[in-house]
Amino acid sequence: MSTDPAISAADTLRVSVLSEALPYIQRFAGRRVVVKYGGAAMVRQDLREAVFRDLALLACVGVQVVVVHGGGPEINEWLGRLQIEPEFRNGLRVTTPETMDVVEMVLVGRVNKQIVNGIHQVGGRAVGICGSDGGLVLARTYGDGSNGLVGDVAAVNPAVLLPLLENGYIPVISSVAANAEGQAHNINADTVAGELAAALQAEKLILLTDTPGILRDRDDPGSLIRQVSLAGARELIESGVVAGGMTPKTECCIRAIAQGVAAAHIVDGRSPHALLLEVFTDAGIGTMVVGSQRQISS
Prior knowledge:
Largest sheet: 8 strands, mixed
Strand content: 15-25%
Radius of gyration: 20 Å
CATH class: Alpha Beta
Number of helices: 10
Distance between the termini: 44 Å
CATH architecture: 3-Layer(aba) Sandwich
Number of domains: 1
Order of helices and strands: HEHHEHEEHEEEHEEEHEEHHEHE
């Protein structure tokens, strides 16, 4: 039987890929996936469009997707325009009341809506909110307060998200939330994503970063640790293999897994369609952290 000449090799490949993805689509339909969106994937136009398409496709096939985003580079840009010097202490932005006003305006009023509009442009349906909306996240001041209005997560009430998820919408959440007195705080987006994933009992927490994942040798991309248990992840921190900016991301994964999230992933957001590669392939991409009760392959 001859092949219809009107059907191109690209058409055949596209259908083959969709067919091979079917088991994954069936597995994750109705399950929840929390994505922390940041890094180069927010800055480069081609990567932004790829992420928006991935999110829309996941929602289209029945995955309940929640997006939590940062926006540090754009905050710095607007602080510069207002002649406010950015200051960091112990890796955290020192957030004065003046800086907090800029953080809130940029994350809630600008970056959040850019993401929502980008998802709409590729046919998805998204709703933009912040941690304060509906009492989603209750903040408390981080540490001893020396960083100003930097917050931590005191409590999460995901009830506001459930009607959106059940009706096929993608909640897009900026990591700004108020404390019990109503004062807005700037919270690390990784932290918010991890706590939301735990509260929603998500199947996956995916952190999009600017590195391939956890590296045994941070100068060698070939030393990627593809899978690690909860105990193994703690040992990597204690031994110093995980250090610097990778430490809070790994700790975020550990907390999420300890609270019942099935798997947490640190993936390279610079790879086009990293989300689909993680969710819809056996090999996945980046580093996967799982509970000790799961078998870890070598």
